[in-house]
Amino acid sequence: MSTSTTGTLETALLDLDELQGEAVLAFESAASPEAVEAARVEYLGQKQGRLKAAQERLRTLPNQAKKSYGQRFNGVKQALEAACDAARARLARRTVGGDGIDVTLPGIAPRLGHRHPLSQTADELIDIFGRLGFAVARGPEVEDVHHNFDALNIPPVHPARDPLDNFFLPDGGMLRSQTSTIQVRVMESQPPPARVVAIGRVYRPDTVDATHSFMFHQIEGLFVAEGVTMGHLKSVLRLFAKSYLGEDVRIRFRPSFFPFTEPSVEIDMLWHGGRGWVEMGGAGMVDPNVFKAVGYDAERVTGFAFGLGIERLCMRRHGIDDIRLLYQNDVRFLDQF
Ligand code: PHE
């Protein structure tokens, strides 16, 4: 009798040990709140739980064994409840909001982009000329010969119309070769005065090298009103140059020729840190023939126009020595600006 009682108790206590070992392992290895809940139901569940079964076993034991078994059972129960609480706490730390996302892990930083250096330059130019009272104008890149040449006083035999120097289209149109087309479009669309800048792409079939591209950007300025002189042109360009390249910039006009301005000049700039005089673009007083083409009264108004290369301005400002870098979208290059 006593032997069998001892044997039955020993087996029962071993079973309790095994239950505790299995249950604690299940809670400790649970990797999600769902796994903890599954372990809780299996071991601590009120209806079918294995701890409940172990409790019911008490009744089947002989009376002498009940005390030892009951004490050990209480210990196992506490251990399981503690293991369950610990597992919940461990996963709660990791799953704030319960959505399975570990908000405490270091994140994957998104790569922040920024505007392209050419766009930055364009924005800055619009800003500077805006402060000088110039509004922004736009025009189409696919143009007609009238706006690109005829209305700009470029005669049918002029070398600028050479098919080798332009992208002509099968329908008789063309990709604009200069933003001066926008001068014409602005004046056609409104009576004087006009005070605008226009920024956009222009196309010329140049062989690509460090300083040439078949596509580049220009900024065109136009100011037409009564009494506008070359003096205004120079002041506006000097103010612009100082804002963009620094206080110590110097500016000089060299006599030149454009069919749509008379007189015409090349604009050179010299600034601290630069390597001598650099040609930045062309300018001049709007030719009376252009006024005639757009219906402005050349006896009443005068005006100046200028055109500057955006790439050139951007490259001089940042010390970029190859225009191709601006078009390759290499993030290692673009990151620097
Ligand atoms: N359109 C000229 C060019 O592309 C530049 C220019 C603009 C000259 C306005 C005079 C006036 O070379």
Task: Provide an overview of this structure.
- The protein has 337 residues and is α+β, with helices and mostly antiparallel strands.
- The protein has two domains: 3-99; 117-334, Bira Bifunctional Protein, Domain 2 (BirA Bifunctional Protein, domain 2, 2-Layer Sandwich).
- 44% of the residues lie in helices and 19% in strands.
- The chain has a seven-stranded mixed β-sheet with strand order 1-4-5-9-8-7-6, with helices on both faces.
- Helix 1 (2-29) runs parallel beside helix 4.
- The termini are far apart.
- The mean pLDDT is 93.
- Bound molecules: phenylalanine.
Distance between the termini: 92 Å
The CATH top-level class label of the largest domain:
Alpha Beta
- DSSP helix fraction: 40-55%
Identify the bound ligands: phenylalanine
- Indicate the radius of gyration in whole angstroms: 42 Å
Mean pLDDT rating: 93
- The CATH superfamily of the largest domain is identified as Bira Bifunctional Protein, Domain 2
What are the salient characteristics of this protein?
337 residues; alpha+beta; BirA Bifunctional Protein, domain 2; seven-stranded mixed β-sheet; two-stranded antiparallel sheet; 11 helices; 9 strands; rod-shaped; binds phenylalanine
